[in-house]
Amino acid sequence: MRTNTKQAFSWQQETPQFPVQYLTIREAAKMLSIGESTLRRLINDGIMPSCRIGGSIRLEINQIHQAAQNGALELSA
Q1: b/e map of 5-30 (b: 16 or more CB within 10 Å)?
Q2: Which CATH number belongs to the domain containing residue 46 in this structure?
């Protein structure tokens, strides 16, 4: 009987522990206290990472916080 469970279940170590939250352009711009066009420019310039979900642009909330910590953006209080 072969029991190589370490290899069979290694994918679980790479999955996030919690669900990823995404924001729309409008929600993220409001959180950052900037205009939607400014946020779109940051996305186009590669400063703010984003993805498309169902044809709409979405921003991962953790990446917004990470960009703010790196000094690329400032979060409103």
Answers
A1: eeeeeeeeeeeeeeeeebbebeebbe
A2: 1.10.1660.10
